[in-house]
Structure formats: structure tokens, C-alpha cells
């Protein structure tokens, strides 16, 4: 039976008058209905359509076989009241307003509730959603001093969600989907027993907000994570298999302090940026994503070698920002899937494997550092800082990148460093930078490592010295001093290069093929344009590095270097001889 409450005037009648209209099958003059201290139940097996409901102390019941359609709003007055949708009942309404006076909204099991706008609740109101019940809203969810619970199988959908006051929100094996942003201004929200929270926008935890997730619950997030709670760890992940699923495109995870997660899943071939320290208790699944550490440290507490999953994803940093930490307790291989952004803005993957020599607890960190010229002092591998002999390639050191490998605790390890021969060069050993000598020295006991096409590797056995944590692939040269080589310019300018130890060090790129043994055409002039004779230098195709003795020149004076290639093209360098 389908019944409508017809509106012939705007006078509000009480619910008893409305019910008599149905019994007598006569037109009802009510537009709005008021539920007072006397209870009212929509007739069984009935679809009742009215304009609005005003709750003033009574109980409005929608039976399991009935449907109540409220074209406008349900509003709770000073005396409150209870709306009870029994198991299987249906409710459609524009707004539910519980924001001024307290009330109770109980939705039973297997119900359907449609909100054409918002759910506003405050003033110590209580809302309960039964099992396998669907609540779908076009608008927002706004809670302020509200007690809310949703039970097994409940499915709630809102556009935005905001939790305020001392609200307590409990989700027990339920699903809440927020189409846009979810903000926790204050109060406490609990995801329990395998619940799911799906946020298609940003998730914001303010300084007074508390967000707990336990017992195999899962958070799906398409936007950014921002946790401003001072403790940082109020996203409590002590339960089993709780997962933060980052399934958007470019995303950020940030907070006032470090963040703690149980599991983290990265979805899609996108960049996920962690802006401060993140600790992952159990598992990191990188998928195909680039997890970018912009100043933070990522720590995996689980010592299992399988605590990281990936397809093509890796953990990256730019310059010195961030590092990647793993705990160990076995003699298995521990992959550090690290990479970096090169000077062209391209992400490169250059992993490291550490294999502890004993099955004891250990903590190790690895990060890849791409060359950044002279920004980072003596540790930098910029092309202007690495010496090369005047012989043709291969060169002694890998100028493209190095790894900073540190040990907090634990036994000696085998270190395997991967590189791309087509992009990085050909190498046959591993070097370690020594601060005591300011030299890169070859590590003992290095052999060919495994292949992970297109990457190949070198493996240093039983490394136990981490006093200097900088390691790189090299080409058999030992004790290479760190000096800078000047870069020639196509036109003279006002700048100058200061020689070191009466050695003029410069690099020259010969772009054309020349016969073996060809002499470099170069000239040195004093300030009066007098030609100075220095020793002969050979040139070959490609990159050439030179160290020319200038002890015959006057200390403190300026000179011009002019270099000419095989096509008579010239490059220049103004230099001053050191005292």
C-alpha cells in the first residue's frame, strides 16, 4: 500500500492526527509532523511520504517492511527523541539535523538509508548503524560531541566527513567511504575488527584528533595524509594486518612528528612522498611506485627478509635527504631497493643487498646519492671533483652515484652494489671513502655479484668497517686523491681558477675522433700575451683529464689557457698560480 500525506495548508499537526487520516482514508492537511512523548510507528508494509519531521521527545519507528520518505529535513528539538529504523526498514531524507539538541538515531540490520544532503549531529547525540545496512548521502557527515557506532557489514558513503568535540566513532567490521576529505579536528575514531575507511581526498588529523586502527582494518587513501597530533603515533597500528593503502596518483604523507604504520601499500606507478620519519612495523609493499624520502627516514622494524614487496618500485631520495633503515636477524639477503633523482630530474634505481654474516640482530641504513657537483663538500662525486688519469676510459671512479651505507648495530655484512653498465660505466671493484686520508680506497675481497637485468653488480665480502659510510663502484684504482678539475669555457670571462700545489688541473672533451698519440693543442699566455712553454699532453676521443705542472710560472700571477680541438675550435680558462 502506497500512502501520501497531502498538504492543503501549512499548519503542523501532531502524529495522532496524521495517523487518523490513514485510518479514515481521508486527505490529511498536515505538511510537517511532530513526534512528541507519544511514540509513532509508520504502518507496516507502507511507503509514507511527508515533507518534514520534528522530533520532540517521542520515538518514530520505521518497521522492517516499511519505507519513510521525508522530502525536507528531520530535525531534533529540545526534548530530543529517537528514530528507530527496524531491521530491513528504509529511510530517505534530505537532511538529518541533530546539531542543536541531542537525540538518538538507531538504524537496524539490513536497512537502506538515503540522505539527499547531510547528517549533522552534536550535543551528545547517539547514532547506531546495524549490520549489513547501507547509508548513502549526497552531502557531508558532521559530528560534534556524538557517540557513533557502525557494525559488521555496514556501508556508509558521504562526500566530506568532519569529527569534532569529544565524539567517539567506532567502526566494527564496517566500511566508511568519503568521496572527498576526512578531517579529525578532535574526538576519537576507532577502526576495529577489519573495518575499511576509503578516503578519495585528503585525510587530516588535527592536533586534538585521535585516530586508531586495529585488528586487520584497512585505510584506502587517494589524497594526502596529514597528522598534526603532537604524539604523531595516535594512528595506532598495534593490531594485525592493518594496512595504509596509498592508491592515488602523486601523494604526500606528513605530520608534526614521525608517523607509525603497521603495513603500507603503494599502488600505481606514481610518486609517494614521505615528508618526515615513517616507521613501518611489519610490511612495505612498494608495487610500481617511487617512495620519495624528502628529508625523512623510513624504518622497517620487521627483521624478516620478506618485509618488503615490490614489482618495479623503489625508495628514493634527492641529494642528502632521507635514508632507508632495515632491521635484520638472519644471514639471508636483505634488499635495500633504493634510488635517486639525477641532475636531469630522472629517477634511477640502484639497489643494494646486505647479507649479514651472523644470524644476530642488526640495524643498517642505505641511501643512494646522485652527483650534485660541489654542493656536498668532499663526499660529493660531481664531475668537477673526481681525478682521472690521462689514459682513455674506463675511469677509476663512478661519477654518477654512490651509496651511504651505515650500521647502527649488527655483524659484518657482504655488500652488493648494483649499477647499469650502459649508463654508469664499467667497473671491477668497490671503493670506500676514507676521511683520514681524503681518498677513495679499494675495499678488499670484491667479486662479481648477481645480475638483475639490466643491472649488474659487484659484491664486497665481510665488510666490517663502517667508520666512513660512503661506498661506490670503481675500476681498480686505489687511493685516488680528491681534487677539482676546471671546466673550460667557449668565451673568456672574468672568473679564474686557482691552481693546487702548482698543478693546473682541467678537463677537456674531444668531440671528434683523433689518431692515437695525438698531442693536445694548447697554449698558455701571461698578462702581456707572452707565450709560455709547458710540457706536451696527449689527447684522445672523449673526456680527458689533465694535470699540468706550472712551477715554471710566477706565483700569484694570472695566465690564460687556450685549448684547440681538431676542428680548430677553441676553449679558454683564466687561472692564477697559487703561492
**Which bin fits the share of residues in helices?**
under 10%
Instruction: Count the DSSP helices.
Output: 2
Gyration radius, rounded? 36 Å
According to DSSP, the number of beta strands is 57
Distance between the termini: 106 Å
Could you list the spans in which at least 5 consecutive residues all have pLDDT below 50? 1-30, 372-395, 477-483
Mean pLDDT: 83
Quick one: biggest sheet? 44 strands, mixed
Commentary on this structure:
This protein has 579 residues and is mainly β. Helix content is 2%, strand content 49%. The protein has a 44-stranded mixed beta sheet that branches. The chain is elongated.
SSE layout and pairings?
Blueprint: E1 2-4, E2 13-14, H1 15-24, E3 32-35, E4 40-41, E5 47-50, E6 52-55, E7 59-62, E8 67-76, E9 82-85, E10 90-98, E11 104-107, E12 112-115, E13 119-121, E14 125-129, E15 134-137, E16 141-144, E17 146-150, E18 155-158, E19 161-164, E20 168-172, E21 175-178, E22 182-192, E23 196-199, E24 203-213, E25 218-221, E26 225-227, E27 243-246, E28 251-255, E29 259-266, E30 271-274, E31 278-285, E32 290-293, E33 297-300, E34 308-309, E35 314-317, E36 323-328, E37 334-336, E38 338-341, E39 347-349, E40 352-356, E41 362-370, E42 401-409, E43 413-419, H2 421-424, E44 429-434, E45 439-442, E46 446-448, E47 456-463, E48 470-474, E49 480-481, E50 486-487, E51 497-498, E52 503-510, E53 521-525, E54 531-532, E55 542-549, E56 558-564, E57 570-576
Parallel strand pairs: 1-5, 2-3, 3-6, 4-7, 5-8, 6-8, 7-9, 8-10, 9-11, 10-12, 10-13, 11-14, 12-15, 13-16, 14-17, 15-18, 16-19, 17-20, 18-21, 19-22, 20-22, 21-23, 22-24, 23-25, 24-26, 25-27, 26-28, 27-29, 28-30, 29-31, 30-32, 31-33, 31-34, 32-35, 33-36, 35-38, 50-52, 51-57
Antiparallel strand pairs: 36-41, 37-40, 38-39, 40-43, 41-42, 42-48, 43-47, 44-45, 44-48, 45-49, 46-47, 52-55, 53-54, 53-56, 56-57
Amino acid at each position: 500500500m502506497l500512502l501520501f500525506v497531502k498538504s492543503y495548508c501549512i499548519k503542523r499537526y501532531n502524529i495522532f492526527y496524521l495517523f487518523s487520516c490513514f485510518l479514515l482514508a481521508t486527505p490529511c492537511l498536515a505538511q510537517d509532523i511532530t513526534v512528541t512523548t507519544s511514540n509513532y510507528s509508520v504502518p507496516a508494509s507502507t511507503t509514507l511520504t511527508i515533507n518534514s519531521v520534528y522530533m520532540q521527545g517521542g520515538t518514530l519507528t520505521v518497521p522492517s517492511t516499511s519505507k519513510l520518505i521525508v522530502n525536507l529535513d528531520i530535525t531534533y528539538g529540545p526534548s530530543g527523541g529517537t528514530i528507530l529504523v527496524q531491521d530491513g526498514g528504509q529511510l530517505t531524507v534530505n537532511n538529518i539535523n541533530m546539531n542543536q539538541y541531542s537525540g538518538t538515531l538507531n538504524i537496524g540490520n539490513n536497512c537502506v538509508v538515503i540522505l539527499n544532503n547531510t547528517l549533522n549531529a552534536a550535543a551528545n547525540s547517539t547514532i547506531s548503524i546495524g549490520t549489513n545496512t547501507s547509508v548513502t548521502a549526497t552531502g557531508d557527515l558532521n559530528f560534534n560531541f556524538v557517540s557513533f557506532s557502525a557494525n559488521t557489514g555496514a556501508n556508509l558513503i558521504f562526500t566530506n566527513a568532519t569529527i569534532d568535540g569529544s565524539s567517539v566513532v567506532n567502526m566494527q567490521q564496517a566500511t566508511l567511504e568519503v568521496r572527498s576529505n576526512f578531517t579529525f579536528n578532535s574526538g576519537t575514531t576507532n577502526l576495529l575488527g577489519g573495518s575499511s575507511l576509503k578516503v578519495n581526498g585528503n585525510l587530516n588529523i588535527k592536533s586534538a584528533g585521535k585516530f586508531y586502527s586495529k585488528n586487520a582494518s584497512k585505510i584506502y587513501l587517494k589524497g594526502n595524509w596529514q597528522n598534526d597530533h603532537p604524539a604523531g603515533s595516535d594512528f595506532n597500528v598495534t593490531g594485525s594486518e592493518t594496512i595504509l593503502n596509498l592508491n592515488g596518483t602523486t601523494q604526500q604523507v606528513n605530520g608534526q612528528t614521525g608517523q607509525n604504520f603497521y603495513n603500507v601499500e603503494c599502488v600505481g606507478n606514481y610518486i609517494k612522498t614521505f615528508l618526515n620519519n615513517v616507521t613501518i612495523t611489519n610490511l612495505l609493499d612498494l608495487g610500481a611506485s617511487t617512495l620519495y624520502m624528502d628529508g625523512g627516514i623510513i624504518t622497517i622494524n620487521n627483521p624478516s627478509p620478506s618485509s618488503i614487496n615490490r614489482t618495479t618500485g623503489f625508495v628514493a631520495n634527492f641529494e642528502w635527504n632521507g635514508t632507508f633503515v632495515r632491521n635484520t636477524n638472519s644471514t639471508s639477503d636483505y634488499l635495500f631497493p633504493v634510488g635517486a633523482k639525477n641532475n636531469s630530474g630522472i629517477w634511477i634505481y640502484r639497489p643494494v643487498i646486505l647479507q649479514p654474516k651472523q644470524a644476530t640482530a642488526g640495524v643498517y641504513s642505505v641511501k643512494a646519492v646522485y652527483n650534485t657537483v660541489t654542493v656536498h663538500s668532499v663526499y660529493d662525486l660531481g664531475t668537477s671533483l673526481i681525478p682521472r688519469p690521462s689514459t682513455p676510459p674506463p675511469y677509476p671512479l663512478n661519477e654518477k652515484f654512490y651509496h651511504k651505507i651505515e650500521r647502527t648495530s649488527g655483524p659484518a655484512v657482504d655488500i652488493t652494489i648494483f649499477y647499469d653498465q650502459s649508463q654508469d660505466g664499467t667497473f671491477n671493484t668497490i671503493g670506500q671513502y676514507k676521511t683520514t686520508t681524503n681518498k677513495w680506497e679499494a675495499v678488499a675481497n670484491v667479486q662479481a655479484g648477481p645480475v638483475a637485468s639490466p643491472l649488474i653488480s659487484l659484491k664486497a665480502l665481510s665488510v666490517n668497517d663502517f667508520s666512513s659510510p660512503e661506498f661506490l663502484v670503481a675500476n681498480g684504482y686505489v687511493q685516488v686523491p680528491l681534487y677539482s678539475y676546471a671546466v673550460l669555457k667557449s668565451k673568456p670571462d672574468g672568473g679564474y681558477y686557482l691552481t693546487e700545489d702548482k698543478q693546473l688541473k682541467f678537463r677537456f672533451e674531444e668531440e671528434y675522433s683523433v689518431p692515437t698519440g695525438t698531442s693536445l693543442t694548447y697554449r698558455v699566455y701571461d698578462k702581456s700575451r707572452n707565450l709560455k712553454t709547458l710540457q706536451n699532453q696527449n689527447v684522445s676521443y672523449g673526456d680527458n683529464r689533465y694535470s699540468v705542472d706550472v712551477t715554471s710560472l710566477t706565483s700569484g700571477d694570472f695566465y690564460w689557457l687556450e685549448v684547440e680541438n681538431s676542428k680548430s675550435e677553441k676553449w679558454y680558462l683564466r687561472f692564477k698560480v697559487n703561492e
